[in-house]
Amino acid sequence: MIKKSWINRPGINRSRLTETFMRLVRIDSISKEEGAISDEIIKILKGLGAETTIDGTGDKIGGETGNIVAKLQGNLGVPAILLSAHMDTVEPGRGVRPVFKDGLFRSDGTTILGADDKSALAIILEVMNIIKERSLPCGPVELVITVCEEIGLLGAKNLDFSLLSAKFGYVLDSTETFGIVTRAPAVNRFEFKIHGKDAHAGASPEKGINAIQLAGKAISKIHTGRIDDETTCNIGMIKGGVATNIVPNFVTVKGEVRSHNEKKLDDLTSEIVSCFKDVIEEYKNESGEDALPALEVLIKNDFPLLKIPDDHMMISLACTAAENLGKKMLTKTTGGGSDANIFFKKGLITGVLGTGMSDVHTVRENILLDDMVDAADLLLEIIKLHSEAGAVG
After folding, report:
1. Could you say which of 269, 303, 337 is where a domain stops?
2. What's the pLDDT score for residue 388?
3. Pick from 226, 221, 227, 224: which is nearest to 235 by CA?
4. Is the confidence at residue 4, as pLDDT, over 50?
5. Active site residue 310
6. pLDDT above 90 coverage of the chain, percent
7. Which of 55, 88, 365, 371 is the catalytic position?
8. Residues in Cβ contact with 314 at an 8 Å cutoff, skipping those fewer than 6 apart
9. Which of 41, 153, 309, 366 has the greatest number of beta carbons closer than 10 A?
10. From the candidates 34, 116, 117, 149, which is the catalytic residue?
11. Confidence (pTM)
């Protein structure tokens, strides 16, 4: 009965998908300024009969709105499945004027397009439309549309997980339409503040303690770039000094360590901290100084590890769905993070699916309608398989 009701289902409504995507990318939604896009998404979801809630994340992070949590009850008593995307975009993302030509979406070249991640929003909404208009058998679907993903996964980090019952699902926030990210690194961000002593660089440099020089000495002891096949390290920012004729009395150094191995992450982070501490102590020992130079250390875990077992049913469901569409699903390891990292830490197993977006975070960002259609077909097939398996089980 269930299988027959999905047979010969109509294809994705390409015109509606195009219109939805074009409408969404025209709405400004820079991180912390997602109020307008949130209103539009909620209006669409309510039209689909979804029960919608906005959590308190906006107040916590100083944004215009919080995460959207929407629930579509479906018509089968099977476990809920999670679908997620983020609504914020990066700069330059104001006044986007989308261009659609020869099946390709792009901006007019003065801004990003916003396919990251509004292509995912349009795809999810299209799939929900198909299910509703065809009254297809479907279990509960829980949608989480997050804010401020682009500035540190702030929406996911502050999400009220008590609003959800789903134990697995998919985040749409990658490139390849038939690839699923199942492994992503944990990240530690570090910040070192070195306090030296100012002095006139020409008249009395010996009276000063050059904070920048000390920072450079510490940095020279650190291995950066790709450390091994699981781990990377980067010094990303150095800020200090007032003028060329003043011995700098303060400098800030910021960077990060990423690894797919938590022990390596912790070990390398500790090694970097030791490099800075050793340089400061060495200077004090040689100079006889006591109070200066001084070091402040701040280490912050930016996001946790994503490491989904290869035999998890979430992966097999996506692989089978791809096979049914005549494609092969590839599991992927990435060097970046997403909301899925946060969900995974909370026990909500989510892989990251792609929408076809390309050259994201640049004014050359683009996406093919055909890729968005493929992503929507895949998502629809995943929901179909989940509904069938749950009903049989």
Report:
1. 303
2. 87
3. 224
4. no
5. no
6. 93
7. 88
8. 168, 169, 170, 308, 349, 350, 351
9. 41
10. 149
11. 0.92
